[in-house]
Design brief:
Distance between the termini: 16 Å
Number of helices: 2
Oligomer: single chain
Strand order of the largest sheet: 5-2-7
Strand content: 35-45%
Structural class: alpha+beta
Order of helices and strands: EEEEEEEHHE
Helix content: 10-25%
Low-confidence stretches: none
Length: 118
């Protein structure tokens, strides 16, 4: 993910979420508590708790784990093949955010705020 990427603040009603930061720096906001996670860190976001994150470094690579499963269908249904094997240009998002958030709502995720700012 490129620097500055941040999804809208949201709550998963059905899934717990874990992010493992593989490379880069990512700031997480979990129920109003902010923490900076660097490569090697794991961050747990339980269902029912508002959260978001923001990439602080030039890029970040993060492994996301959702439990229970089935959330992967969101990515299968809405994913778009990359036109090239690079990150999106700075300041751009390679997918339709309103469409993704509408599908997340259908799957039990509630958007409760804007993306995280610097």
């Amino acid at each position: 993910m490129p620097e500055g990427f941040s999804p809208p603040r949201h709550i998963h009603m059905r899934e717990d979420e874990v992010f493992v930061v593989e490379d880069g720096d990512v700031c997480f906001d979990i129920d109003g508590r902010r923490l900076l996670a660097r490569a090697g860190a794991g961050v747990f976001m339980p269902r029912g708790v508002p959260h978001t994150f923001r990439v602080q470094s030039a890029t970040a690579q993060v492994l996301g784990i959702m439990s229970p499963g089935e959330f992967d269908g969101l990515f299968r249904e809405l994913g778009v093949p990359a036109g090239r094997r690079t990150l999106p240009d700075a300041g751009t998002v390679p997918f339709d955010v309103p469409r993704v958030m509408a599908e997340q709502r259908r799957r039990g995720t509630e958007v409760v705020g804007p993306p995280m700012t610097a």
